[in-house]
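re the bet — no i am not wrong, look at it urself. input seq straight from the record:
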Amino acid sequence: LGDCLSNAAPIQVYTIWQVSWAFICGLIALLVESMSVQEVRANVMAEISSEGELTIESLLTAFCDAMIRVSHDLLITQDAPKLSALLLRQPLGGNLQGSSLLDLVHEEDRHNLAMHLRGTTCNHLAKSMSVRLLDGRGSDVKVQLYHTCCADVEGTPRYLVGICEHGYAWDSAWENGSPGGLDEALHRSFD
């Protein structure tokens, strides 16, 4: 290319350089635009996902006794004053942030809960599970967990968990060895 340019007229060399720079600038502009479109698409998807999470969080907060956010390694990621109150843990204002959810669960239920949560795929239907939590005195608190998995920006799963304490109908079903038979116990309690 150097030999060709040295024999060419200065106007031709200038034209070749101009065309080359125009091509390079056009290529850069195309790459920047492509990256911008991808960034906008990612931002829109994140916003839609965030709105969905807020809706789920609002529903769990409205219908459950407590709602918590749990990381992929099953740590409570935000303060949980309602869960603290439900479990009679001091201070009642919360301070469960950073605690392991599994530390609050009865030893016999820990493995099943961990497997159940980690088996939940993100952006699919919500699931539920009956477990026993431990209150501040170490006594069992029978609860139903309603949870869903959401992925963060990096794709790491995290969980939104609603916690409902069970009443008399649940206790009857649990004592009869049929925690899954809650519907039957509820129907019997209304007869």
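see?? The radius of gyration is 29 Å. told u. also The first helix runs from residue 2 to 7. so pay up
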